[in-house]
């Protein structure tokens, strides 16, 4: 307990840097982001060559092509990262905003002003674009950041961070505003999440194990999220043809994402012929069904492949072309299933009955609840936030896609005329 | 890690109860609060007699009169608790409020709706009115709550909770909406803060040790706060006579509270005669000064008592008629001192120079920042929130006095017309 935290100095420097950053205005911070975009644009070659090193190491280590693709940068992807920075530049800056203000009876003028959180710690894996995503959202909102990326991307990330440092220096700002932990020792994650004297928020962007580790060990508030066991309930009043389109979209548009459909709940009254039609449509998309026993009788022989579902499958984030399928007797049964197996991420009801929709909306506890829409929309860009730093599935501070506002706190400010409390 | 949490069942029941409670409307919840007020009113005698038991045990155990006074209920105090319930009934219910809504280009109607957090865990000490404060704010916002009060108040608390249970039952609601952990085993605090499957937020209302314990051991987001090492900086342009009134108010109006002034920073240019005048005024209030060496030359012989300050005193929450006093050369030195020793609670500048005020406001990082006002205003009732569940000194979710809004989260709701993502 009295051992010094090996990241103490990094935390201290980050906090000091955050104070300096907080003195900049919106125009200066946008200028800094422009500078970073320019640096990336002027250094595509060095970035790609650093990325090649990471890819080679990954290949030598036997990484799967799918994972290697997440690692890969090319000119087009870098251009798209630069475009994302420009999007953030174009967003409204929440810092300094007055949330509400009032004059109290005693004459005090009281208001809440949006301020940066201070220092944010981000732990993430694989994709190098995340480095720039996080940095641009943090800088826009005047937050310093301590980054801890995956070791697979170390060369790419260090190149990106050195370009960010160049931009900071050219803007006469300390490079401690963006610090990167390059020591691969996993113990340092534990050190990072215990820097509560300096860091206001930890964002673990990674799998369940990372999230649980942070929840278990952090002394700093952690934003958990990004794990999505998402459901669609097809009510008996739903338009069945359109329901099939939604299901295809939610399952197959990009199966590896957290807002992908994993379990479909169908009202038993429409099992015939809905299940059969659906099965044919899913076959064309090469989806494999994991069915509860009572579904079998409704499945056509020439439809989608299927296996019997195991109980634990209902809590699984497939992230693949697999789909659990279960019949339910009514809305309540669907809600009970979602309460038992969901991860409070994204849940949808397909219905033409507004009463059923209202009940679903109020009783299903999730970051995003949909009526007659695909679960795939839970995303900062789709929701008009411009970008997102994470998708929160917890309830404190921010829920769902986290944009700029989620990177702010507020302070109460009161102006008096030498006012004392009676 | 795989041991069953001894509070598992309590957590589970609380979550189920929270789902039921979430189905009630504002009128029903206000009715429930009315019923609780009625029960208290009709049972003043049994409450007082339970309180007598606690007082007797406290006396036998040698509790100090000051602490016993915190424990004490009398008819007047119960009436005042009942009045507080009525205040909460009169407050606007934030649940169901639409925070923002927009129609996206693809036709999706997107909005955020305020919802209860679900289940709240509250750990607190001594004062029995806190039980009713927490319960009424939680019930108003449709949150279930698990209470863990101090063992000194156990008889009073159990009587209060049994009256709340009667009210719940008469309103046809499950009494699991308000559960009380009556087992005095301190290990159960550790169990409570690890019920992350069921509980959304932990509020530890107590001293630094309790706060640190929760930060260290909780797997649920914790709201830390309530520790206030508050400062006032008297700038050279301040109205010195009025400054003294503010200092007296901030230090002596109720010294045992967290928003009380603990360290006074005075611009050296006004040390003479300000320090001398102040010292005379503080003497009348029986304040003892803890001074840095350079202050001594300005102190009159017939002024307030003083001792030399120790370095660690600057980080101490005196909660008594003691006051640290230090000279600073300028605003920056004051800000540096506050950054080093403050607890981000309440900080004030007294100045007639708006530029200095602006710098102080933006550079001092605290829940509440005051210009020409006493720090004593940081309080839910004073800020017009009606009441408060705690005063947060962290930056996530809620900062400063936490009223009803701080007991809510939101969900994203999207209505489509069988809308798919392109």
From TrEMBL, chains A, B:
EC numbers, comma separated: 1.2.1.41
Xref: SUPFAM superfamilies: ALDH-like
Keyword Zinc among UniProt keywords: no
Keyword NADP: yes
Molecular-function annotations in GO: glutamate-5-semialdehyde dehydrogenase activity; NADP binding
Gene Ontology cellular-component terms listed: cytoplasm
Gene Ontology annotations of biological process type: L-proline biosynthetic process
Entries under InterPro entries matching the protein: Ald_DH/histidinol_DH, Ald_DH_C, Ald_DH_N, Aldehyde_DH_dom, Glu-5-SA_DH, GPR_dom
Aldehyde dehydrogenase domain ranges (all copies): 7-292
Pathway: Amino-acid biosynthesis; L-proline biosynthesis; L-glutamate 5-semialdehyde from L-glutamate: step 2/2
Catalytic activity line of the entry: L-glutamate 5-semialdehyde + phosphate + NADP(+) = L-glutamyl 5-phosphate + NADPH + H(+)
Chief localization: cytoplasm
Matches recorded under Pfam families: Aldedh
Keywords attached to this entry: Amino-acid biosynthesis, Cytoplasm, NADP, Oxidoreductase, Proline biosynthesis
Compartment(s): Cytoplasm
Functional note: Catalyzes the NADPH-dependent reduction of L-glutamate 5-phosphate into L-glutamate 5-semialdehyde and phosphate. The product spontaneously undergoes cyclization to form 1-pyrroline-5-carboxylate.
Family: Belongs to the gamma-glutamyl phosphate reductase family.
Protein name: Gamma-glutamyl phosphate reductase
Organism: Desulfovibrio litoralis DSM 11393
């Amino acid at each position: 307990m009295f051992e010094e935290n090996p990241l103490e100095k990094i935390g201290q420097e980050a906090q000091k840097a955050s104070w300096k950053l907080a003195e900049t205005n919106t125009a200066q911070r946008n200028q800094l982001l422009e500078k970073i975009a320019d640096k990336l644009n002027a250094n595509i070659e060095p970035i790609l060559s650093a990325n090649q090193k990471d890819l080679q190491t990954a290949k030598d280590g036997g990484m799967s092509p799918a994972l290697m693709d997440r690692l890969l940068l090319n000119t087009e992807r870098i251009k798209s990262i630069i475009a994302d920075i420009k999007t953030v530049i174009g967003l409204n800056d929440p810092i300094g905003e007055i949330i509400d203000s009032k004059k109290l009876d005693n004459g005090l003028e009281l208001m809440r002003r949006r301020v940066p959180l201070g220092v944010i710690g981000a732990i993430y894996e694989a994709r190098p674009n995340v480095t720039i995503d996080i940095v641009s959202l943090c800088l826009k909102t005047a937050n310093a950041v301590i980054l801890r990326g995956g070791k697979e991307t170390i060369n790419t990330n260090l190149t990106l961070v050195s370009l960010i440092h160049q931009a900071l220096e050219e803007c006469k700002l300390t490079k401690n505003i963006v610090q990167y932990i390059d020591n691969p020792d996993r113990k340092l994650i534990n050190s990072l999440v215990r820097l509560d004297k300096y860091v206001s928020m930890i964002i673990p962007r990674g799998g369940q194990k990372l999230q649980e580790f942070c929840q278990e060990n952090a002394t700093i508030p952690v934003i958990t999220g990004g794990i999505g066991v998402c459901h669609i309930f097809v009510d008996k009043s739903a338009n069945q043809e359109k329901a099939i389109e939604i299901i295809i979209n939610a399952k197959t548009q990009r199966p590896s994402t957290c807002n992908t459909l994993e379990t479909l709940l169908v009202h038993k009254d429409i099992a015939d012929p809905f299940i059969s039609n659906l099965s044919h449509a899913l076959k064309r998309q090469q989806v494999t069904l994991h069915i509860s026993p009572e579904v079998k009788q409704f499945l056509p022989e020439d439809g989608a492949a299927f296996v019997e579902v195991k109980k634990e499958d209902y809590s699984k984030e497939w992230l693949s072309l697999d789909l659990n399928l279960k019949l339910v007797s009514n809305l309540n049964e669907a809600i009970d299933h979602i309460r038992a197996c969901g991860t409070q991420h994204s849940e949808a009801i397909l219905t033409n009955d507004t009463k059923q929709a209202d009940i679903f909306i109020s009783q299903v506890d999730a970051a995003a609840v949909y009526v007659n829409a695909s679960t795939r929309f839970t995303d900062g860009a789709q929701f008009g936030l411009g970008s997102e730093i994470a998708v929160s599935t917890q309830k404190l501070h921010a829920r769902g896609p986290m944009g700029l506002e989620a990177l702010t706190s507020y302070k109460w400010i009161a102006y008096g005329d030498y006012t004392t409390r009676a």
